[in-house]
Amino acid sequence: MTALLMLIVLVSSSDEANAAPGMPGVVCAPPGGKPGDPVAGFAGPQLANAAAIVTVGVKMGVPQRGQVIAVATAIQESKLLMYANSTVPASLSLPHDRVGSDHDSVGLFQQRTSWGPLAVRMDARKSAQLFYARLLAVPGWQSMSLSQAAQAVQVSAFPDAYARWEEPASALVGSVAGIVCTSPGTSLATNPKAQLVIDRALSQQGVPYVWAGGDANGPTKGGFDCSGLMVYAFAGIGVTVPHQTQSIWATFQPAITDRAQLQPGDMLLFSSNGTAGGIHHVGLYLGDGKMVHAPETGDVVKTVEKIWNSPYWTREFIGAVRAGVPTPR
């Protein structure tokens, strides 16, 4: 059963987000959940509505960051419940979970008449399309904080209210996408900082490679380059990584050149000529010969397996550096 179908068959309900939301700053669901369990304190129709919002975002090509913004906005506006409005009598005849009375606002996003027809605003998927269309029209939305981006769309009287829902929204988007806060194939239970760095990097799989893209808050210019992905991953533990591969190498010396000494969470550096001046690429080591990286133009953030069986990677590898994730004693 897909993650989306698992969400739709849930039947319980909850008004508040009171469960562990997952990993701060990471789009992933807490490990150990089972079909029927709440996600970040939400259940039943709330999860089905979150699934609808995320599914529409995927179909429209909205980056994962935009999906988190949309879900967080719906949490703030309606707790992910479909609202009719007592001042809009026609809304009471449409499927709904609750009845409100704020002006003429209805639906998951509390959209007013100016947004479109009533039946559209009270349909989870169609109302999400309306939200995304306006979000994508906001210049530079991907570089904004969640509150700034949501406020640019909603123009709310409480512009700072959206930020508190970022972690629950990230957990919900991760659940729909089937992303769990674990790293299969690695053993990091004794190194939680490395786990967080890895989870942040893995959460960006599928995001396009963009030269000079990425910062501590996520993709910029529509994606990441190899060092930008490291900047984002390590920002989760408060470590500043230079946005340039040779600077990464110089900043976190001494280097680790013995592959047997590598630990998950190390940054692997690759050089075209075996010297620091030839370093051109960086990836994050996952253990067991696996690496997550942003490869090149036309590709996306992804995981590579068995890198030590590859003549290219073994030839280009100059060493690794360790930043903020020391080996546990």
UniProtKB/TrEMBL annotation:
Keywords, ordered alphabetically: Hydrolase, Plasmid, Protease, Signal, Thiol protease
Gene3D superfamilies in alphabetical order: endopeptidase domain like (from Nostoc punctiforme)
The keyword Nucleus appears for this protein: no
GO BP terms in the entry: proteolysis
GO MF: cysteine-type peptidase activity
Pfam families: NLPC_P60
Signal peptide: 1-19
Database matches in InterPro entries: NLP_P60_dom, Papain-like_cys_pep_sf, PG_Endopeptidase_C40
Superkingdom classification of source: Bacteria
PROSITE patterns for the chain: NLPC_P60 (PS51935)
Domain NlpC/P60: 191-324
Family stated for the protein in its record: Belongs to the peptidase C40 family.
Protein name: NLP/P60 protein
Species assigned in the record: Pseudonocardia dioxanivorans (strain ATCC 55486 / DSM 44775 / JCM 13855 / CB1190)
